[in-house]
Amino acid sequence: MLLILVLTVIGFVFLVPTILGKDIKYWPTQQLSLGLDLKGGMYVTLGVKIDKAARDELIRLQQDLKEYWPKKENINVKDSRITEDGKLIIEFPDTESTKKATAYVEEHLSSYKIVAHDELSLTLELNPNVLASINQNALQQARQTIVNRIDEFGVREPEIRTQGNDRITVSLPGIVDPERAKRLIGRTAALEFKLVSGPDSVARSREELLSRLGGKIPDGSDIYPHREKAGQTSGFYMLKKEPDFTGRYLSDARPGYDEYNLPAVDFRINTEGSKIFERLTSANIGKQLAIVLDNVVMSAPVIRARISTNGQISGSFTSDEANDLAIVLRAGSLPVPVEIEEERTVGPTLGEDSIHRGMISLIIGTIAVVTSMAVYYQLGGLLADLALILNVLFILSGLTMFGATLTFPGIAGIVLTIGMAVDANVIINERIREEMRTGKTPRAAISAGYKKAFWTVFDSNLTTVAAAVILFQFGTGPIKGFAITLTIGITASMFTAIFVTHLIFDYLIASGKLQKLRI
Questions:
Q1: What per-residue string of b and e applies to 308-337 under the rule 16 or more CB within 10 Å gives b?
Q2: Which tens digits make up the pLDDT trace of 473-509?
């Protein structure tokens, strides 16, 4: 009886914030978390461009070999290019360089294989197992980056999962600004720093800049728009494609204010990057350094002095934009681009309607079960009803304790559990009836009934738990919520049906309050 009392008190303690409808400071638990279908929010499916990960790997190899081979291996490279189907073609000025390059690839580049060659060229591609590993790593890294961003955004109980080989699903309960959330999730946030070669590299329009260049952009360069005044383009820069410094060296980023007291982002560079940034800025004092985010020039300040650890990104941000940019820079840039393939928004009104309908079904189901048990089994039915109330308490407190999220399928799981909970009591009460028909005393009939019914109840519930475990392992989203609720409910029902009701029967008989058993 003490154990039942303690568990009941603990159950109420865990449910106090949910009952009051608000979190309590210093209370050991929070409110029961509601899923997207009950609380409202947004659901997004992201398509991940994992093929870019392999292309980036080829670009890195292309750059490394272009610098390393002539200096270290005496291999001269005439030209190299990457094809649309993911192959790296390297051209050489002489057959001797081709032979040396072939030997080097076979000996040192185990991740690549030669798929074609002639006297003056080699064609390389990634080995299939390496390609699969790169793609999987890119998918997982993209998911983790989005997880980090959402965590800092402050969404409670988000659900972010990979789906197949190139998709990520994101469920964000309680989101009130879906557009801002979409910008935060899908932003690549590739931060680069590029030196501006001179005033001729800046113009008010793209056409003006092209006319200065004779209508052709130099190899290795590109034109980038300059963002100013609420996101509007105010000019264009001609910059090198390859950055002089990248955001991979950032250790922190926080929203702040620029010299005009406008929102900006202050960033800090780690130890490794500070040495590189210090060399870059000290050698280029008086020049402009363009800060490029996702191929847009955010600002291009003049380097006034040597900089090593701190910097600032300005660009006429709003407070929300500065805060969101700081979040994505802290969380890191996405390794590959993503695009929104599907989105659904559930309004809070629809969520409230789901809760209302779910509660109606729960109340109707509970009344039907309680009434039928009390009428048919009398005392045994009333004890089963008491166990049922405890069962619901333990389910809700268990969901809160484990930090689970209650969804509409979860409510369905509770309704199902209510029906299954009395099933155990039905089996027990029928066994007690059979024992009473043989002429046994109430004490003997109750003892034999529980003993003979135990394994039947245990086996039936065990098979249901096994099915719930499989649903949890292979299901997604609401299916997992259903499986969790069902598992907690079955565990609670086993305890209440076999332990609690048996204890009450024993107490009534031992105290002499139960002289004649009607069941």
A1: beebebbbbbeeebbbbbbbbbbbbbbbbb
A2: 877 666 777 888 888 888 888 888 888 888 888 888 8
How far is the C-alpha of 457 from the C-alpha of 479, rounded, in Å? 25
Q: CA neighbours within 13 Å on the CB side: how many for 233?
A: 13
Pair 139, 113: CB distance under 8 Å: no
Pairing mode, strands 33-34 and 405-406? parallel
Q: Is residue 325 part of a domain?
A: yes
What is the count of structural domains for the chain?
Answer: 3
Q: Where are the alpha helices (DSSP H) in 219-318?
A: 271-282
Q: What is the CATH number of the domain that holds 61?
A: 3.30.1360
Rounded Cα distance, 154 and 72, in Å: 50
Q: Is 180 within a domain?
A: no
Residue range 132-149: average pLDDT? 87
Assigned domain for 167 exists: no
Task: Please report whether residue 223 resides in a domain.
Answer: yes
Same-domain check for residues 380 and 503:
yes
- Please tell me whether residues 207 and 333 are part of one structural domain: yes
Question: Are the C-beta atoms of residues 440 and 449 closer than 8 Å to each other?
Answer: no
Q: Among 286, 314, 343, which residue terminates a domain? A: 343
Summarised one tens digit per residue, pLDDT across range 105-135 is: 989 888 999 998 888 999 999 999 999 998 8
pLDDT tens for residues 155-185? Answer: 766 888 888 888 998 888 877 678 878 877 8
Domain of 352 in residue numbering reads as 2-39+347-510
Helix (H) or strand (E) holding 144: helix 128-153
Task: Please say whether the beta carbons of 48 and 139 come within 8 A.
Answer: yes
Residues 375 and 470 in one domain: yes
Instruction: Indicate the burial class of 343 (C-beta count within 10 angstroms; 0-12, 13-18, 19 or more).
Output: middle
pTM: 0.62
Tokens 């793209």 found at: 206
Q: What is the DSSP string of 426-445?
A: HHHHHHHHHHHHTT--HHHH
Which residue's entry shows tokens 């899908």? 186
**Sequence-ordered list of residues with C-beta below 8 angstroms from that of 231, at least 6 positions apart, any chain:** 316
For 270-288, write each residue's pLDDT tens digit.
888 888 889 899 999 989 9
Residues 422 and 473 in one domain: yes
329, two tokens:
């820079």
Count Cα atoms within 13 angstroms, Cβ side, for 246: 10
The rounded distance, in Å, linking the Cα atoms of 355 and 362 is 10
Phi, psi angles (nearest 5°) of residue 292: -110, 125
